[in-house]
Design a protein that fits this description.
By secondary structure, the protein is an alpha/beta fold. The chain contains 8 helices and 19 strands. The two termini are about 60 Å apart.
Length: about 475
């Protein structure tokens, strides 16, 4: 089953809680604090893999969680960090944030990695808060929560050459003849229901064998870019192709060469219009016209129709290459494939990276990801941010609200039922300049100060 769209939820691991503990050893009655730090939560990391060809693995399992960090322990022992969760996706997967629409990653090369959600930092144990003035702190930090995100996954197949055309133009037949791919072939429209990939190998092309990937998508009809037919669902799969081959069948054109030329060019223009309506990038790609099913006509008819079509097409696009082939008899295939290989060689920008997986035939041995992993990229919003900014809002007389990412994060790791922890929070806010901002806003001792859903009394004499 081919699946190229998926929606998932990822949850990075929470950090472990810091410990409140004391040294209790013989002959050391005043051992002091000994609470260890909590371990960092595991992160969610996406990695492109050649062992997957569709997003089917995300159809039934849609939530993925990393391991939380362990809590700190006595004797200043730090908890173990949670194990990262490696989210394997097919090469060519595009990942976007479902809530904001921000592009997070485009994994177009095997072995690429990107951090999607960072695990929460572990809370600090009470040993960390011992100072000359507070030698026995009775508080520790809870672990920070891990980042949670809703993601949209979209698969765009990786191919050098894309086959486009109307239904029954011979795309699947051509792919089955020049590669080991075995798409469904029949004499009725919309036989191809999902995109197919095949590897074309030219053993005699130059000194060494040359291989490239060819993609076949379901046939396009008028209005495909607006959602008609099946092809519109898969137009994205040829966005990465460097060369597009427009296939037009000769078996059902008008009998007279001139009328056949007009009809063939009309079909070509119709497909070109749908590509342009879907994406301007597709319309600007190198494109060739391939006339198929020449075995259904006599050689004289093929020659006459080709000449008429060439004259008709080149009056509009003089530089458009035109080929005639028959996948059934293999006529014209060698010149076409050789020209395609030469085009890919000549324009290296059309060529896919060498470590891109290309052996996509059923039950084939899959290529392992590249040994040297790419540098771990970080997706926007994947990390817990440390923004220093905050705002003080006067809601009404004697009531103020403090907002800001760092203020919210400090509140999240403060047990509000622990007076020592609350005092430590007030110290942190004072060091950030919050108390000065409240004083400037007109706050008086005893006024209400709200952070999220917690209310505190304003006390300007808290020690730092």
């Amino acid at each position: 089953m081919f699946l190229d769209e998926a929606h998932i939820e990822i949850i990075a691991g929470d950090g472990g809680n810091g410990a409140i503990a004391w040294r209790r050893e013989k002959y050391e009655p005043n051992g002091g604090p000994a609470g260890g730090d909590g371990g960092k939560g595991g992160s969610i990391i996406a990695e492109s893999s050649t062992h997957m060809q569709t997003l089917l693995d995300f159809k039934y399992k849609t939530q993925f969680m990393a391991q939380p960090g362990e809590n700190g322990a006595t004797k200043n022992r730090t908890g173990h960090g949670g194990q990262d969760y490696i989210l394997k996706v097919p090469v060519g997967t595009v990942i976007t944030d479902a809530d904001t629409g921000v592009l997070l990653a485009d994994l177009s090369i095997a072995g690429q990695r990107v951090l999607l959600a960072e695990g929460g930092r572990g809370g600090r144990g009470n040993t960390r808060f011992a100072t000359a003035r507070h030698q026995a702190p009775h508080y520790a930090e809870p672990g920070e929560p891990g980042v949670q995100r809703n993601l949209n996954l979209s698969l765009k197949l990786i191919a050098d050459v894309g086959l486009v055309g109307m239904p029954n133009a011979g795309k699947s037949t051509l792919l089955s003849v020049v590669s080991a791919a075995r798409p469904k072939i029949a004499d009725y429209p919309f036989t191809t229901l999902v995109p197919n990939l095949g590897v074309v190998s030219l053993e005699n092309a130059g000194d060494t064998a040359f291989r490239f990937v060819m993609a076949d998508i379901p046939g396009l009809i008028e209005g495909a870019s607006e959602g008609k037919g099946l092809g519109h669902q898969f137009l994205k799969h040829i966005e990465r192709c460097g060369l597009l081959l427009h296939l037009v069948a000769l078996d059902n054109l008008c009998e007279t060469p001139e009328a056949a030329a007009d009809e063939a060019y009309a079909r070509y223009e119709q497909i070109l219009h749908e590509l342009s309506a879907y994406s301007k990038t597709l319309a600007q790609k190198p494109q060739w016209l391939v006339l198929t099913k020449t075995d259904t006509l006599t050689p004289e008819q093929v020659s006459a129709q080709k000449a008429a079509i060439k004259q008709r097409v080149q009056s509009k696009q003089p530089a458009l290459p035109i080929f005639c082939i028959s996948a059934a008899t293999h006529a014209g295939l060698e010149p076409l494939l050789k020209a395609v290989a030469d085009e890919i060689r000549q324009h290296q920008s059309l060529r896919l990276p060498e470590d891109t997986p290309i052996d996509t035939t059923p039950n084939a041995d899959l290529i392992e990801p590249v040994a040297a992993k790419k540098h771990l990229a970080v997706a926007p919003g994947a990390k817990l941010k440390d923004e220093l900014g905050f705002e003080v809002e006067t809601q009404r007389a004697g009531v103020y609200r403090i907002t800001g990412p760092k203020v919210r994060r400090w509140l999240a790791v403060t047990p509000v039922n622990n007076p020592s922890s609350v005092r430590h929070l007030m110290d942190v806010l004072k060091a950030m300049g919050v108390q000065e901002a409240l004083k400037a806003a007109g706050a008086q001792p005893g006024d209400e100060v709200w952070i999220e859903d917690q209310a505190f009394d304003y006390d300007p004499v808290v020690d730092a």
